[in-house]
Amino acid sequence: MNAVTLTALALIITCGGFASSEEPPSSARSREAIDRVRPELERQLVKMGARYGSPVFMRVFKEEAELEVWVDTGDHFVLFRTYEICAASGTLGPKQRRGDGQCPEGFYYVGSSGLNPRSTFHLSFDIGYPNEYDRQLGRTGSAIMVHGDCVSIGCFAMTDVGIEEIYALADAALRGGQPFFRVHVFPFRMTKRNMEAHRDSEWCGFWENLREGYDYFEAEGRPPDVRVARGRYVFAAS
Fold first, then answer.
1. Which of 103, 122, 155, 184 is catalytic?
2. Which own/partner contact pairs does 212-216 have at CB distance under 8 Å and 24+ positions apart?
3. pTM for the complete prediction?
């Protein structure tokens, strides 16, 4: 096992992600959905200089109710599409305990085992909450999903049309060799104006730490590797 592989595995373990050589699970429902959306996705990806199966990266913005899917074109990630989150519960601020109705905030990872092609809510994937940061703070809860069916308690619910495209891109990336994809969840777009507007929040210090990861991607065009050290997220080149 080479040094790059060891580093990647250490990162996944640290941040509570998933690493697997197994192909993503499938079902008749997921196969039918993927077959339906794949031709148009392939056409759009070619226009962007990417391919179906290119690595993906996702960002979620709670206040704006948006989920972005970014695709790797080789040198950097390019925004493929922004999807409306049609239902989510809770308020701004991280999830802290099971049953609080909150959606998490932080840096998460999804591997093949996180995909659920037989979801009660059409199609879904588990974002990987709680990660190492959450566990160090004693945060509880599980099964925080991005899914369809447009209903949510603590998850990010999409339309069925939206989740089919998102799921197909994730499934293709994992089958194409991406060991996991990152999902970064923010309370809002972490601009200077938005940070100033929320400066009195009890979560301001936490959000400043999240903003470091947000700014890294904005500057570099590639999501950072994320570790947890002394109760903070720390970021480095991926």
1. 155
2. 213/107, 213/184, 214/184, 214/186, 214/190, 215/190
3. 0.90
Our answer to whether residue 198 is catalytic in this structure is no
| Catalytic status, residue 184 | no
Catalytic residue of the set 147, 150, 198, 204: 147
Which domains does the chain possess? 3-236 (2.40.440.10)
Instruction: Name the nearest CA neighbour of 105 among 136, 159, 71, 63.
Output: 63
Q: Tens of pLDDT along the chain (238 residues)? A: 333 333 344 444 334 444 455 899 999 999 999 999 999 999 999 999 999 999 999 999 999 999 999 999 998 999 999 999 998 899 999 999 999 999 999 999 999 999 999 999 999 999 999 999 999 999 999 999 999 999 888 899 999 999 999 999 999 999 999 999 999 999 999 999 999 999 999 999 999 999 999 999 999 999 999 999 999 999 999 8
Percent helix, strand, coil in the chain (nearest 5)?
A: 35, 20, 45
State how beta strands 66-72 and 77-84 pair.
Answer: antiparallel
Sign of CA dihedral 38, 153, 70, 63: positive
Which single residue is written with the structure tokens 């197994």? 22
